[in-house]
């Protein structure tokens, strides 16, 4: 008589098995009712079609009537107590004929006998037999029947009552990473003010009220301040943005005039740590120093500049190109390299190259869905400048996104996520709700709009995505029901259909619904992630087996062995 303390999982398990037993009892009751209906319908059919009712015309007593009908029925039916014999053409009943059965036959009215339709009677008996077979199947597969019962409850009563909360593990995060953009950043470049309350001035970007702001002036000074309604930085602001502590990817390409020597100096640097509200001089501090060129590259992209010198200088070459990619990224306090000792008339950007830092390796946390560079979760690939993410969802839609480490994906609705390469084919098996067909299609991404979902299986009611993968391999094994049997077949989507437009329906596979799909083989090579920086990655075909977290390309190892034809760079 002691209380039993159980967890929710234990209670749910007990409740589920109890429901399963109740469903068994209900099916047994339904089976008995159907067998009884079939028994009576069969007796009635034999009684009327064989005109047994005429045999009772000579009977003088009730007992004689019952006995006459019983003898007449036994000529046409067999029972468990009177089984069939060799060559016996009688119909086998499920149970013995009782006195009550015969009484019910005597209660059939003449009007009903005269209008008896044998064809409809056969249809009714066949319908009962079909229902009886289904009940027997459900009893033999009671677990599957119970699952379908619970699913039906969810579909019938769950609409509009979906769970509002999510069961996820909590991750350690910084406030700045998740705070909502509840403010806007403005700048007055000429007067040197930045802030969130300067709504009449130039809009810069959305931000939060706890962000830090970095601003650079034409005199070569930069400062980091906490955002406020209005903060003075210094006149002639040339660049302002939200600053993230420890940001090693954002690189500033910088050319300044040294007031003392008259030389144009070039350098590249990051700003990873500072003291707020302090002026930092990016020049040598000489009087007359000023900025000639400035750009901020979020992923360390290199640039090629076209430099035009003053026409009156003594330089032999007055127009030349300067490649920032040849400069090493150093600290903000470095003096930089000499670009030219002659007066500069104009500097213009001609080309933005790839990242000098190499591709940024990105993972996605399988639980929270957040992108990260901390090697947490599944590796998505190395992302260079302009590389996009493709996300494919269970509702049959895809979406392209720029890399944003603050973005969070709903892992419950994702089928595939990875690095997008233009020209990759999307291989699909799906059910078309209008026609009731299983279809196959292949397409390449034709849309350019980012952060917008595009449905590629149609929006007909009942349409469902069965399988999707990305790449040049798609040999799929699929299963479907054919009557009472489960049938399997293979299809190579690459051979079955050519690449078509993303809006095309595709080719018909069959008039059935697929219950399960499996990717037969994976020929892509998977390599372990190495902690050393890798600037170039080998692009390999990758695919998803209708699941989100299959293995995809991982960073290639950085070998030390040289091969014939390799180039060796020397620094002089």
Task: Give your account of this protein's structure.
The chain has three domains: 8-153, Orthogonal Bundle (Topoisomerase, domain 3); 179-355, Neuraminidase, CATH 2.120.10; 360-519, 6 Propeller (Neuraminidase), CATH 2.120.10. The termini are far apart. Strands 10, 11, 13, 16 and 17 form a five-stranded mixed beta sheet that branches. 20% of the residues lie in helices and 31% in strands. It has eight helices and 33 strands. It is an alpha+beta fold and 572 residues long. Strand 25 (425-432) and strand 26 form a beta hairpin.
Please supply descriptive tags for the structure shown above.
five-stranded mixed β-sheet; Topoisomerase, domain 3; Neuraminidase; alpha+beta; 33 strands; disordered C terminus; 572 residues
